[in-house]
From TrEMBL:
InterPro entries: CAT-like_dom_sf (IPR023213). Gene3D superfamilies: Chloramphenicol acetyltransferase-like domain (3.30.559.10). It comes from Bacillus cereus. It comes from the Bacteria. This is Condensation domain-containing protein.
């Protein structure tokens, strides 16, 4: 099956060039919840968001006319991570995850890690600035939350 390709916007091209020379190309968000986020429902929610927003599971292809090429794999293995620790360790674990550089060209463009503490769950979301801006991150988190809520309530 041929991999799907998507157009690159002028903003994507500008962000690509800026990232080559100076700009940090990663946008981070950290969300706190009482313990209870389901790892399985989160993974399924992420999978659905990638179907709805396939550029997030794509790589940037530098060409005469650049484009996004969707990864052939539909797994979340390099997108969704999970770790446990005590509440005091969560902040350090979040910072360590944020510091881990993703491959801003090969993707995926989004990664997240659910950190489970004794009384707190922390969801760390990293999204490449190459394909999104701050408003896009907020929209993605809203989409992820909506899908998670629907799945957790048994709706599809």
């Amino acid at each position: 099956m041929e991999q799907r390709k998507f157009s690159v916007t002028p903003q994507d091209q500008m962000n690509y060039v800026l990232g080559l020379y100076s700009a940090d190309q990663q946008i981070n968000a950290v969300l706190y919840f009482p313990v209870g986020i389901s790892k399985e429902i989160l993974e399924e929610s992420v999978r659905i968001t990638l179907q709805l927003q396939p550029v997030l599971n794509s790589r940037f292809v530098e060409n005469d006319i650049p484009y996004w090429e969707e990864h052939s794999s539909d797994t979340n293995s390099s997108i969704c991570f999970f770790a446990e620790g005590n509440n005091q360790e969560l902040e350090i674990m979040a910072i360590d995850f944020i510091k881990e550089p993703g491959d801003r060209i090969q993707g995926p463009m989004v990664q997240m890690k659910l950190l489970r503490g004794t009384t707190t769950d922390m969801l760390v979301v990293k999204l490449s600035h190459l394909c999104s801006d701050g408003a896009g991150v907020k929209e993605y988190i809203k989409l992820l939350g909506t899908i998670y809520t629907h799945l957790s309530l048994g709706r599809s």
